[in-house]
Every structure is written in structure tokens, then in C-alpha cells.
Here is the input.
Amino acid sequence: MSRGTVSILPTAEPPKSRKAPLVPGEFLLTADDFTRIASMLHSETGIHLTEAKVALVYSRLAKRLRALGLENFRDYCELVTGAEGLDERQQMICALTTNVTKFFREPHHFEHLKAHVLPPLLDNARRGGRVRIWSAACSDGQEPYSIALTVLSLMPDANNYDIKILATDIDTKMLAHGRAGVYDTNALSQVPSDMRSKWFVKTEGNRTFGACEELRGLVSFKELNLIGQWPLKGPFQAIFCRNVVIYFEEQTQAKIWSRFAPLIAPKGVLYIGHSERITGPAAGLFGNAGITTYQKL
Here is the structure.
């Protein structure tokens, strides 16, 4: 998932001291440590952490402390804020960002894409037109490959035309996974059997499947931070940005929706997550086109 000083909400029973442990465990994690980590994550990604996420932060970063041979979170904070800790700071961000994804997640979006968006776009591509679709926060590639599979279901020779799917994410490990395009049988359980047999190749041992050249050829993976610079020109006829802005504060959400708007072609479509809504000035630029599906006016 293919996001300034953070405001930390108090727990029902706050610790007596900012130096007291927030959770029992192998490594000491204090409220001061948590605040520093939350502030770094917020400034780097826009993700807003409250102390309700203390256990999550501890469990995900404890692995990093063990790997580095550190004794407590204070030392870890000193490392990631120092000049020598840039690589580990990226490791921290990757560990704390959520990468829940699956093929054809929220299938109504792909049904809408196939029935209403792609047919005229692909007809135009056959006449020399350009098709661009963006999967923002693409995680390990299952979303953009789902888009590509939908394209191929209508145009098996799509690679012969000017059709590209941009897949971006802040997590470099997820991007590497996406570029490799290798998934186990559980990940592919939502992919129809005919698509799986046509566009994936079994790897050695038949335990994993690799996306074939035609499928991978439609998708380009790039690192991008949604609250950073967007070196994108557009326009995109469709953008998928699903189940990511819910981790941002409302002001950041509105800003992101407003940044999408000028990059979407007239009558282009924005697909968002089931718990999300378009807010701020951008709300007046889109009309409802289905369940969490919006068309630029």
C-alpha cells in the first residue's frame, strides 16, 4: 500500500511518567519514544498515529531493534534521527505502513472499469490514442495487476498499444515485490482460473506463480510519497486511491483529493476505498458514478 507535529490522543489511563513503559515487553518503549516515532512517521508520510497504535508500533519495530542489537526504543530513535540512520528510517517507514491488499479487492470497481471506462478508452487506443491509469498506494502490485488483467480481458494484445498503468507506493520493498510479480496460490485465489492460467506462469515447485511478460509489461512501478512531490504529468483516465487516505488527518485528505483533480482527464474516474469520502474543494469537482466511484465533472 499500492501518506508537522503529530497530535497524540491520551489513553484512558495515561502512564504516570513520559519515561514509564507503555507496554510490557523485551524493549522499553516510553511515551516520549512513541511521540518521536509518531512525529517522524507523520512528517514523512502523513500517517497519523494515536496511542491506540502503541502495540502495533512495538510489535513491528521490535524486530528491527533485535536485528540491530539495540536495547531500547530511545536508542532506536537516536539512530533513525541521526545522519547515519537514513536507511533505517526508511526501514521504519516500511515497517509501519499498512500493506493490506489482494487481487480484485472491492470487485465492483473492476466491474465498473471493465463495463464503463475501458471500452471507449481501448477503442481510442486502437486508433492511436493514449491510455493512462494510476494505482496510487499500490502495495505489492496486486491492485495494478488486477487493473492490467481487466485490460487484458478486453484487449489481449494491449501491449501493442499506448496503454500504461502507473503503480506507486512509498514502500520500496513492496515495489520490488510488485516488479517481480511473483505470488503464492493464496494471493491468487481471487483471480479467475482462466486469467491465472493465461497470464501467470508456475514457478519451480508449483508453489508460486509469476506474472507473464505481457502482464508485467503494462505496469510501471515507481516510488512516490503521497504527501511529497508528484513528478507526474497526466492526464489519467482513471485513478485508484483506495484505503490509504483514511490514515491521514482530514486536512491532508482534502489536500490529496485536490491534487488528484487536475491530473484526471475530463470525465475520468477516481476510485476510493469503502471507508473514504472526497472532502474539501475537490468534492465539488466530482459526481457520483457508483459505489465509492467518482467521475470528474
About this structure: The domain at 107-296 is CATH 3.40.50.150 (Rossmann fold). The chain has a mean pLDDT of 91. The radius of gyration is 21 Å. The chain has two domains: 1-97, 107-296.
